[in-house]
Design a protein that fits this description.
By secondary structure, the protein is of the alpha/beta class. It is about 50% helix and about 15% strand. It has 6 helices and 5 strands, in the order E-H-E-H-E-H-E-H-E-H-H.
């Protein structure tokens, strides 16, 4: 899978770990920065970079890391067509794709470690959106809210 990764300074070490891990797993990784944890950076910039990579077709999905995951997820969700959630457990990482069409996995580098991050990334990447009527119907309602700007 073509997957974009980005972080702020707090998420940098975990993002770097995942970049290498996902390359070893055979994925095409697009590293959108940041390139150091030594200089403070702002999570909205990382969220926007991930969003653009998905929306313009450079990546199929994205993984975003910041301190808690919360701020980056909020920022990413401001972009029409981006569906991000903070996931720190295996079930949510795949269920978010399957039931809710999540296309950005957001993780907190101050919350989870490298092994858990690998497991979450694997679950997120392996998951496919459900075609069950109830999931399609519910996501249609999400798109309706998005299109009305509510």
């Amino acid at each position: 899978m073509k997957i974009a990764l980005a972080s702020d300074h707090a998420g940098y070490p975990l993002k770097q770990h995942l970049v290498e891990y996902l390359k070893q797993q055979g994925h095409e990784v697009i590293d959108l920065g940041v390139d150091t944890d030594k200089v403070p950076s702002d999570y909205p910039d990382s969220a926007e970079a991930i969003g653009h990579a998905i929306l313009d077709g450079r990546a199929e999905r994205g993984i975003l890391a910041c301190g808690s995951g919360v701020g980056a997820s909020i920022a990413a969700n401001k972009m029409k067509g981006i569906y991000s959630a903070v996931c720190h457990d295996h079930y949510s990482a795949h269920q978010g794709v399957e039931h809710d069409r999540m296309n950005v996995l957001t993780i907190g580098a101050r919350i989870i470690g490298p092994t858990t991050a690998e497991e979450l990334a694997d679950a997120f990447i392996a998951a496919q959106p459900s075609t069950e009527e109830r999931h399609v119907r519910r996501f249609g309602k999400v798109l309706g809210i998005e299109s009305r700007g509510e």
